[in-house]
Amino acid sequence: MSGAVSPLGGSSITRPVAQPFDVVEVTAGFQHTCVRTSRGLVRCWGDNSRGQAGSPFPAPRITEVANLTNVAGLSAGYQHTCARLTDGTVRCWGDNANGQSAPSGYRVIF
After folding, report:
1. How far apart are CA 77 and CA 27, in angstroms?
2. Cβ contacts of residue 2 below 8 Å, gap of 6+?
3. Which one of 26, 44, 96, 98 has the lowest number of neighbouring Cβ atoms within 10 Å?
């Protein structure tokens, strides 16, 4: 993995992303990106207007998702993100306007 990112389309612009940790999985939503590290942690950056980057604050910088460990899998949607933990449970955060982060009767963690 080169650590470079580039926009979709005809542009050939790339930018290295600081990577001070071992990335084993990458997922991207509409305007946010998250990575899972080899230690089972999640770090996100980009738009956080719906909490999809896992922080109560804007996340233009790489931010570790708090209180989330032992992550085995990761998937981002339009404005939400979900993680599958090693114990088989799933944790989701971000926009829940249509029940995409937590079905009725369940609670979104962020």
Report:
1. 9
2. 16
3. 98
State which amino acid sits at residue 86.
T
Alpha-carbon separation of residue 77 from 19, 25, 40, 95 (angstroms): 23, 15, 20, 9
Tokens 């369940």 — which residue?
106
Q: How confident is the model over 42-93, as pLDDT tens digits?
A: 999 988 888 888 887 776 688 899 999 999 999 999 999 999 999 999 999 9
Residue-wise burial string across 28-65, b where 16 or more C-beta atoms lie within 10 A, e elsewhere: ebeebbbbbbeeebbbbbbbbebbbbbbeeebeebbeb
Query: Residue 17 corresponds to which amino acid?
Result: V
CA atoms of 40 and 14, how far apart (whole Å): 27
Within 13 Å, how many C-alpha atoms sit on residue 92's CB side?
20
